[in-house]
Amino acid sequence: MKITRLFIFLFLLFSASKIEAQEFKLGKVSIAELEQKVHPKDSSAAAAILYKRGKSRIEYNDSDGFFLLTEVETRIKIYKKEGYDWANQSVTYYSVKNESRETVSISDVVTYNLVNGKIEKTKLKSDGEFNEEVNKYRSRKKISMPNVKEGSVLEFRYTVRTLNISMMRDWKFQSSIPVDYSEYTTYIPEYYTFNSMQKGYVFPKVATVKNSKSITSQNRERTLGPGHVSKTTFSTDKVDYMETQTSYLAENIPALKDELYVNNIDNYTASVEHELSIVKPFNQPLKMYSADWNSVVKTIYDYDDFGPELNKTGYFENDLKTVLAGLNTAEEKIPAILSYVKSKVKWDEYYGYSCDKGVRKAYQEGTGNVAEINLMLTAMLRYAGLTANPVLLSTRSNGIPLFPNRTAFNYVVAAVETSTGNVLLDGTDRFSTPNILPLRTLNWNGRLIRKDGSSEEVDLMPQKVSADNIFMNYTIAADGKVTGKTRRQYTDYNALVTRGNISGFKEEEYLEKLENQYNKIEINEYSKANEKDFLQPIIETYSFSGNNLCELIGEKIYISPMLFFTENKNPFTQEVREYPVDFSYPFADKYNITIQIPDGFTVETLPAPAAVTMEDNLGTFKFNIASNGNTLQLAILHQINQAIVSAEKYDMLKEYYKAMIAKETEKIVLKKI
How far is CA 74 from CA 42, 52, 78, 304, in A? Predict the structure, then answer.
């Protein structure tokens, strides 16, 4: 997918300019910091990060060899009660007992307040720190800072240690509150090469220097001497090497404001990421990790818990033969296999492209993670004679994979190559269908991997328009009461979303939600069609009545012709938009509305027909209304043809919505004869 606005920059080489860093130190809180009532550059801020400093070092000891140590210290100012949540801090870490296990310690936790002109310190007590399990892979260490008030300054430090050098953490310079000072430094021995990438709209100063370092190791050797007397001798080895120290410094960073229709705000947060690319151990050959996408996906494909799982078929062959009986074409086989996998194995809510217990056990037990379900699905499609391959991707919550690295991906789906293009499939979502993936996976591009190790980029964003077709007729009574019927048909992604919404509630709860959403109407005679036939549009039909849908002023009735379907508020109000607008999928909302006006009334004012068309076939709004005696007929179309709209087109989109909402909110005026 073409990115029309460049918001990400990749930096592999850095200037050697000197950075003048300020002197910050935990415990040195000033009276001026405590006296500050509002943030000097953002008076609306409920809190601010006064400074944050981090260091990631690759160090060495004789027992562990090289290990990664990250130290972070932070000072936060609280201005308003709304900022009290910043007193609750946490560090999430990998807790599985293997070489990737991380250990976390939090220290120097202090709250400072100004009391009678003097600085008062309150230290964290033991009951203010605790651990919680996030899932079977990760845990979270949390602190709740004591004695927090408006005006407090908070300080804390944490360290993270791991033997897995590749697990260097991302550093975020920007936050949802202002950041006055942010500094991050990495110390990397010459034996390791990392790809470094910065993203966002704030660019820190970067400086690199080379440091001479050495490793001194103690060796002990025991020998047997004359008379069979053992003797222990000690020796010392010293290895000299070069270390690259890279510093990043940013100051006066504005708060990152979330906006509507943003995929994941972290995609645009000013930050720096590191991915291990090359390892050159002492006197050993190079090990390549993430030089390019092909090497990344080949590395993943060769993992024991990925590629080999695709070759296992014995556990499902007999069952699948029954499923495929009488099916001859790809169009018949694909939905049948997808439906079978969804009915056979339920998703355990774990992401990832690596199998945990393996496809065979997942099939037998009836539950599995994303990889187990979708690699199993891929294997079944191949067994059925189809050209099927896994597609690695990053979910919306995980961010956009922007440069070659193994940790960019956290999900895998299946793809069937056909003469008309790839058919994408996901067996984890009960409502998914061929080429209708769960919304969590619609994140720009994925990477298809073939058996021979080759790969190619796959566009994950839908191109087909999902429809929402609404047929409504209603009658207006002389006292302003409205009664009518609605038939609503959802296709493709609109159908997937609607089925998900319906399934989350009992019918009476769902209808109560609709009634409240639609201006307190009363719904009855509700029915659904194709609720469980996922290949068909889902259809809702109901009758409704409402006493709050018209305004009676004097002898006139004022009514918005679209009733509770009227869009009243423009979601795009910012003067400047830096991020793309992400609608998730193209859509078309079509309305056919018939209105019966009451006897004894006539039309005084009708909204004029209107049409708005954006450039580059981005979208269209059409509004037509006609009067025939006591009957009014409306035909309305609101269609957006692109899932993602670049920031350059924001002004056009904003004006489109402004014109559409102005038209939709125009009233029909009926006057008494």
Answer: 20, 4, 13, 41
CA–CA distances in Å: residue 93 to residues 96, 99, 103: 9, 13, 7
Amino acid letter, 505? F
CA dist 233 and 251 (Å) reads 54
d(CA 249, CA 102): 26
Is residue 476 a contact partner of residue 598, using CB atoms and an 8 Å limit? yes
Q: Which position has the token pair 């910050």?
A: 24
Beta-carbon contacts of 83 under 8 Å, excluding residues fewer than 6 positions away, are 45, 46, 47, 177
The span from the CA of 74 to the CA of 25, in Å, is 9
Nearest to 74 by CA among 151, 171, 164, 141: 171
Alpha-carbon gap, residue 187 to 70, rounded angstroms:
10
At residue 531, the pLDDT reads: 94
pLDDT of residue 15: 35
Judge whether 262 and 197 are in contact, CB under 8 Å: no
| CA gyration radius, the chain | 31
Q: What is the mean pLDDT of residues 217-243?
A: 70
Q: What is the DSSP letter of 369?
A: -
Q: Which residues contact 295 (CB under 8 A, 6 or more apart)?
A: 288, 289, 404
Q: At a CB cut-off of 8 Å and minimum separation 6, what does 441 contact?
A: 393, 395, 396, 411, 413, 426, 460
The 10s digit of each residue's pLDDT in 266-308 is 899 999 999 888 898 776 788 877 668 888 888 899 999 999 9
Cα–Cα distances in angstroms (integers) from residue 305 to residues 309, 369, 409, 602, in the given order: 6, 12, 15, 72
Whether 20 shows a pLDDT value over 60: the answer reads: no
Question: Rounded to whole angstroms, how far apart are CA atoms 426 and 627?
Answer: 48
**Rounded distance between C-alpha atoms, residue 111 and residue 115, angstroms:** 12
**pLDDT of residue 13 exceeding 50:** no
